[in-house]
Design brief:
Elements lengths: L1 E7 L4 H4 E4 L2 E4 L1 H17 L9 E8 L12 H10 L9 E8 L7 E8 L6
Parallel strand pairs: 4-5
Antiparallel strand pairs: 1-6, 2-3, 4-6
Length: 121
Amino acid sequence: MKVILELPHPPSVNVYYRRSGHHMHISEQGKKFKIDVAEIIATHHPEKFNMLRLKIHIDYYPPTKRKTDIDNRIKAVLDSLTDAGLWLDDEQVDELSIKRMPVYKGGKIVVTVETLDGKDE
C-alpha cells in the first residue's frame, strides 16, 4: 500500500511545543496543524496502515529561502499523522528520508508512506 499526502507547512518543533512551568503542551500553531492534517486524512485517505512496518519519504518545500533545519519540522508531521489515525504509532516507521525541495509560496510537505513488505493489511 502507498499513500501520498500533501500537507501544509508544519510548525518547527521549537514552536510546536510550549512549556508552562513543568508542563509541556502543544501550542496553538501545533493544534491548528494537527487539525488540518486530521481533516486531510479524514477526507482523502480513509485507508489505514494499522500495525504494518512503514517507510516514509518527505519532500520539504520551505516557504522562503531563509535558513531552516529540515529535521525541525518532522516531529509535528509524524505526531499529527499518528493522531489522525493514518497508523497506530510512529514506532512503526523503520525508514525515514527527508529531502529539501525548492521554495514554495507558503511552504508545504509532501509525505509518501509505503509498507515495507508490500502488504495491504
